[in-house]
């Protein structure tokens, strides 16, 4: 972490806390002031270590976000390959060669 970024982050945090009671989300705070989130997190930890006897409380809250990959999105829309295969078989049945032909078209 660059010293100037760390210093700017610490100053921003302390300045914010002069008029507000808390920083509810370090991620949102980082976005609002244009400083990398990791720099903000490290600055909070550093300030907590320095101001351990003050009334500064730090809660470590981890958030995860899961998203589907492109393949997962296609399965969500069209179904898994097994479901697509099952749906390709008409109610009256189909020959092995006919099914192979249909699968090759897809």
TrEMBL record:
Gene Ontology MF, one: ligase activity
PheRS DNA binding domain boundaries: 7-48
Domain of life of the native organism: Eukaryota
Annotated protein name in UniProt: Phenylalanine--tRNA ligase alpha subunit, cytoplasmic
Record keywords: Ligase
